[in-house]
Amino acid sequence: MKNLQLFTAIVTVSFIISSCEYNVENEDVVIDPCESTVSYSATIRPLIDTNCMPCHNGDGNTPFAPDLTNYNSVQGIAILIKDVTQSGRMPQNSSLTEVEKDAIKCWVDNGALDN
């Protein structure tokens, strides 16, 4: 009788433990890289100054290079800036990190604000 009770207890505990299995692989986990607001003045402007100004400085020496010297110019083509940086077409030396590309994407996706 004791063996039957022990066996029943083991089977019951095993069943309870196995029914509590949590399968993380089936979860749809979405990580939002845009959790916080990206600042134009603190993040985007310095990226432009460092990576874009050699060609996009408004001096007219580089053909087909939009002037990115002020917010209004940048904001006017923000979607294009996002597209060319995400694809790696710009900057020409491909010097942006994934974190910097994500910052540009988030800034544009959140309205390209002058913040």
Estimate the helix proportion, in percent.
Answer: 40-55%
List SSEs in N-to-C order. Answer: HHHHH
Q: Span from first to last CA?
A: 76 Å
Uncertain segments of ≥5 residues (pLDDT<50)? Answer: none
Mean pLDDT: 84
Number of strands: 0
Strand fraction: under 5%
Alpha-beta content class: mainly alpha
Largest sheet: none
The radius of gyration computed from the alpha-carbon positions, rounded to a whole number of angstroms, is: 27 Å
What characteristic shape results from the CA principal axes? Answer: elongated
Total of helices: 5
Question: What is the secondary structure topology, with strand pairs?
Answer:
Layout: H1 2-19, H2 40-51, H3 71-76, H4 78-87, H5 98-109
Helix pairs in contact: 2-5, 4-5
Can you describe what's shown?
With 115 residues, this protein is mainly α. The chain has a domain at 40-109. The protein contains 5 helices and no strands. The model has no long low-confidence stretch (mean pLDDT 84).
Brief digest:
This protein has five helices and no strands. The protein is an all-alpha fold and 115 residues long.
Spell out the key features of this protein.
115 residues, mainly alpha, 50% helix, 0% strand, elongated
